[in-house]
Amino acid sequence: MVNILLVEDDKNIANTISYYLQQEGFLIGTARTVKEGIEEIKENLYDVMLLDINLPDGTGYELYEKMKKIQEIPTIFLTALDEEKDIVKGFDLGAEDYITKPFHAGELLSRIKNVLRHSKIKEKEEAIKINNVEMNYTIRKSIKR
To answer: Tens of pLDDT along 37-49?
Structure first.
């Protein structure tokens, strides 16, 4: 199963996205703040992160930079900020995609699948799996799945 971390402070948006993605077979972890997002990243392994930029205790950009020091999670910024400077900043930080609100659920699903396709290729090059233990060379951790 694919694990997705959704960091979104708007409860209605988070519930709607979570419900839709769960119906598509994804496991969803949620966080509403930078602090909660960091806790989730430290405690769980995620395949993709959907990240809002405007959060109550900081920005999604800050969370993204902190996340990269803990583990690399392919990230899609999912935000109302639609100015070119914001989009460019997201990509310059290293995000895989950037979607502005409002968006269509089908488009979000397609973009998640695209990120997963690209990250699986990268994952094969950076990790070795033996039985239920994976050694990830990028994050330098053994992960028991």
So the answer is: 999 999 999 999 9
